[in-house]
Amino acid sequence: xxxxxxxxxxxxxxxxxxxxxxxxxxxxxxxxxxxxxxxxxxxxxxxxxxxxxxxxxxxxxxxxxxxxxxxxxxxxxxxxxxxxxxxxxxxxxxxxxxxxxxxxxxxxxxxxxxxxxxxxxxxxxxxxxxxxxxxxxxxxxxxxxxxxxxxxxxxxxxxxxxxxxxxxxxxxxxxxxxxxxxxx
Length: 184
Fold this sequence. Notes:
By secondary structure, the protein is mainly α. Helices cover about 90% and strands about 0% of the residues. Helix 1 runs antiparallel to helix 2.
């Protein structure tokens, strides 16, 4: 309605008015005003403003739906992101625990290896000492055996040189008697 009043007031101004009375069909301003009013009436008759409003409402609903869907997707994405960040943190903690455990196992293995090496060295030292003692005992025995053999040989040589046949026979008889007494 305001547009009609505006159109009439613009048409009624003397600078824009055509020659002659305003309400005559010869006045182009009047014809344009009538055409405009008729166009507006046809638009209202066919409910074009309601259609345009419905289309705008439908478009607004689609936009609102798209915004709601975008919000839902954003929230879902934030949830997934938080989940992945939590999993990443858990994996980092787990890897830190695994590394610490591996370091501890390596430390224990090194200590065990040191202890095994010390025991092995101790066993080898003991074995070497036993071999040395055994070799020393064998050497002492060999020296004693050699000394005994040499002494027996020297004694037999000395006795053989100093002893007569009768003394030898008497010694043999005494040894036989001594062995016979010990055996019976």
